[in-house]
Amino acid sequence: MAGHIVVASSFTLKTYAEHEVPVEKISINPYGVDTRGFSPASDSNNGNDQVQFVFVGSVDARKGIPFLLETWDNLDTGNARLTLVGPVSEFTKTYIQQHYPAVTVMGKLPFSELKKALPAFDVMIFPSFFEGYGLVVPEAMACGLPVITTNATCGPDIIEHGKEGFIIEPAAEEQLKEA
After folding, report:
1. CB atoms within 10 A of CB 139
2. pLDDT confidence of residue 30
3. Euclidean distance between CA atoms 119 and 142, whole angstroms
4. Cα–Cα–Cα angle for 164, 166, 168, rounded to 5 degrees
5. Cβ neighbours of residue 116 under 8 Å, at least 6 residues apart?
6. Model-level pTM greater than 0.85?
7. Dihedral angle at the C-alpha atoms of 144, 148, 152, 155, nearest 10 degrees?
């Protein structure tokens, strides 16, 4: 019944269209990032020889965490580390620590700390199955991180595949491994 709907991503537009909202009634207005708060680290890799991957968001199934952990476990990660940042239940945190000891679970960080922590990583992985936008994607990009994300996020709107990062299908293990 709305005269017009403004959404943040083409994925959200597609979702409304699949529910029979006329596309001509929808406009995309993506979110922005305050680059005064999110910016690249002054030194690359902070003197660490490991490649530091990070996920930021709710540590749950909708965000693709079981898929990410299973895929990570099947990779020869060599000198790479994965850190999960975001709200997580004690049960989930304990499960991850018991079954994936090489993965660090930081839990939720205050926004002010996230801005400082994000530039210390090298790559952001955001394998969400369904995301209206995913503001953490452009925040990571503002910090100079390439982003691996799915086409169920804002990724296709702001990432040129192979340039600023990689766009994969949700739950596409081989695509994630390649990226």
Report:
1. 23
2. 93
3. 9
4. 155
5. none
6. yes
7. 30
Distances (CA, A) of 61 to 10, 57, 96, 123, 128: 22, 11, 13, 21, 8
**pLDDT over 90 at 48, yes or no:** no
What would the two tokens of residue 67 be?
């898929």
- Token pair belonging to 84: 């999960």
Looking at residue 92, its amino acid is T
Residue with tokens 């949700």: 170
Separation CA 16–CA 108 (nearest Å):
31
- Confidence class for position 43, pLDDT limits 50, 70, 90: low
Please name which of 50, 78, 175 lies closest in space to residue 125, comparing C-alpha atoms.
175
